[in-house]
Each structure stands twice: as C-alpha cells, then as structure tokens.
Amino acid sequence: LDERISYNLTPEQLCLTTKLRKVCDTFRQHARKSISRHKKEKDPIVKTLNNLSKYKTIYITRPDKGRAVVILERSDYLMKMEQILNEPKTFKQLDEDPTIQKEDKLQRKLLHLKNICFLTDSEYKFARPVGSQPGNAYELPKTHKDGVPLRPIISARGTFNDKLSKLLANKLKHLRASPTIVIDTFKFVKELQNL
C-alpha cells in the first residue's frame, strides 16, 4: 500500500497540461456566467404565469391535447372535478386506503417469484414496492369542446405497482416491435394505403 505515484511529464507536456487547464477553467467560468445571466433573464411569459399563480381564485394547467397554458376559474374547475369524482359508475369512495394491504400482498408475491427463480434479485429489488402512495386524480381541460369539460387522469406514479409495470413494460418491449402491432393511427393509415 506504500506505493508512490510519480508522473514523469516532459516540460512540453507540462506546458500543454497547464494550457488545457486554463482553457477548461475559462470555459467553466463563462458557462457559470451564462447560466446565471440566463436565470436572471426570465421569460416574460414565465414571469406572468408565476405572478398569476399567486391568485388563489384561478387554476393554471395544460390542456388535454396540444401544448398550451389554460387558465380557469378555480371554483369552476373544482365543481367540474367534483362532478366527475361523484359519478358512481366511474368512481366510488372507499372507507379506508387499501394501499398498504396491496403493497404487502405484492411484496409477498414478488418474493415468491424471486424464490422460485422467476425473478432475478435485481428485478425483485427494482419491482418491490416501498412507501407506496395511492393514485393521484387530476383533470385536464378539453379546450376544443364547448363548455371546456375536463378529462380525468389517474396518475399511477408512486403507486404500489408502478415499478412492476415499468419492469413488465421493459420485458415486453420486444413484443411491441412486432409487425402485427399498429403503433399509432398514422402508421395504420399508411399500412392501409399500401394495401
């Protein structure tokens, strides 16, 4: 362990190393200045949206289609959201949160699959849920329709089966490349035209 590292650089190599270090330091300095200047020069639209977000009577979001900014009356948004969540065919209120029970059940199932060598240790560690949260419901406005109805979205990010779904999607990825699967409408139309 008492090894000494020695560099036997020639004077030319030392000179080049010094020049390279100076160039790198200058580059870093200019990059830092540019980044800090850019942060100070905020886009006027972003500034306006930040100012508007301070008003508690409005709700700022994105539409369900396209890239835009939608500003709604918060009371209208909450009323429409409540109507959607109160539809008995779509949603039902639970007396207690089943997340912990579902997480525990999935953990036991994944451990069983690991023990019978169906899952590798790394797959088990990746898919095993810990600290799961219930799904998060939010709505995006359909700006292209009259009355601006809302499209309900249930985000499964952080739920008990979120990582398992990512693992399965990765394992099944090769099946999506099949010539019998149509990825989107444009590809479907193109295939019909080629018939």
Characterise the protein shown here.
- The mean pLDDT is 87.
- The protein has 195 residues and is mostly helical.
- It starts with 10 loop residues before the first helix and ends with a helix.
- The chain has 8 helices and 4 strands.
- 50% of the residues lie in helices and 10% in strands.
- The strands form 2 sheets. The chain has a two-stranded antiparallel sheet. Strands 3-4 form a two-stranded antiparallel sheet.
- It has a domain at 47-181.
Q: Which helices and strands occur, and which strands form pairs?
A:
Blueprint: H1 11-40, H2 44-52, E1 58-61, E2 70-73, H3 74-85, H4 99-115, H5 121-127, E3 136-141, E4 150-155, H6 162-171, H7 173-176, H8 185-193
Antiparallel strand pairs: 1-2, 3-4
Helix pairs in contact: 4-5
Strand order of the largest sheet: 1-2
Instruction: Determine Rg (CA atoms, Å).
Output: 28 Å
DSSP helical segment count: 8
Helix content: 40-55%
Residue-averaged pLDDT: 87
How much of the residues is beta strand, in percent?
A: 5-15%
**How many strands in all?**
4
Which word captures the global form?
extended
